[in-house]
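Q: Structure tokens for this one, please.
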Amino acid sequence: MRKFLLLLMFAPLNGRTQLLSSVAKLIETEHYRPKVIDDSFSAALWRRYIEMLDPLKGLFLRSDLETLSTYRFVLDDEIRGERVVAFLPAALRLYRARLSEAVVMDSAILSNPFRYDVDETVRPDGGSLDDFAGSLPVLREARRKMLKYLSLQYLVMQRRTGFESDSLARQKAREWLAADYARLWRDTALSVQMGRYVDVMGRLMDPHTDYFFSGVGSGSPSTVDVALIRSSGRRVGYVSFPEFYGDSLRHCASDVSRALRTLDSARVDGIVFDLRDNHGGSLQEVLRMTGLLIPRGPVVQVRRRSGAPVALSSDADSVVYDGPLAILVNEKTASAAELFTAAIQDYHRGIVIGSRTYGKGTVQRSFPVDSGVLKLTIEQFFRVSGGSTQLAGVTPDVCLPDVYAFQKVREADNAGALGWDTIPPVAYAPGPALYGGAFSPDSVFGVIQRNNTWLGARRDSPVSLDLSVFTAGQDARQAILLQDRDALTLPAGRRLDVMALTPGDRRWVMAAGRDIYINEALRVLEHIREPKS
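A: Here is the predicted structure, written as tokens:
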């Protein structure tokens, strides 16, 4: 009986050790550029997991980190199964204790009115501007500022309705905290935190190596939106889709092929592919879709951690559409969408318009591990011209600023992103270079650029908790955002005549008719010419 009880006691421990060692082996054998799991990696994992538990630096004390420092350089040994997995249980015990204390502390803080005429500051997310607190009084002061920041936001929302009450603002803060604490307590389960610990471990390799529990449902099915746009006496086709989807029932390239045939039969003067916010998808769909526009030939090169790069090609003998083409992109055009855009650009098949794309040039594969799934980066993409889209993305032929610029949403803004690289170009036959002519973007893009500079300069600046200063800052920011909204919207007299050619929700049609970027794409299409001989 005693032996049976001991087996039960150590079963979860053995399971954790097995999970960590399995993940480590997969990373070491399959990852494209694995980091060495050594003492340096251990120290980074130790710090990153603690910061994941307490991102606002409002729970742990500096002495807690000192208590946990005994594990700082041994997590690599725990991962390999050479030591008992002890850091995670120890960190969670401290976390739960500090969470309990925070509930009591917050209740006491919110029982007293805040002074909103004191100029004190927090981070934009409400977190402490300092490192972890060195004492309980310092921690309490950090939490007081966090709660004041939360209440201040509710107070400002009240002010817009003409009614202002610190008591009501603090009550709203209590309600928000109650829901947040309920979530945090649910997430203290060891099974949940083990998954998050492994996820942190994966993301130290690169931003796209992660671990998640299986059984996550998929979203609503994607579709291709197709329209005919009439502008300045010309008829231009419009094609947009949010991802390069492909499964046993539906294929993005097939849907786009039908759209191109419909538009070509309508004798359009050009086609705009709108790939803004397209987050990528199936590489096979990229190859098939490129073949709709470019004859048989290489589309992308792929390289694993060992071996020579492999060129993947389109096998299309003839194209579906060979007329003028423009590709709209922005900073959220990613992965497979970037490969398609790069191929169009490298072959001189169309003009790319917008802002530099996201910069995800890696391939992931999922491996079942325990009760979850480890998604590993296993390959890197390269253009037929040799450069990688990793970090660099695709630079448009006609550059236009967009409102994402100040938000830092690109791959390069992720900690641990893999670097850019280049390989020899593959043999391919680009068409004649397109001549864009003397094209001057609409002057409103200057407004967006200036606003991006203003917003970017304040993105990470400390936030004042003085009500008048805070309100002035919020009002100024709101005014800038309203300027952006107005700048991005075509005035009534210039709106586009958009006729949808696909069934379904029509809200996108109204948005397209007001979209200044689509209008710029139409203007660029007018300038596409073959170079003069």
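A few notes: The chain has two domains: 12-205, 225-527. The chain has a mean pLDDT of 92.
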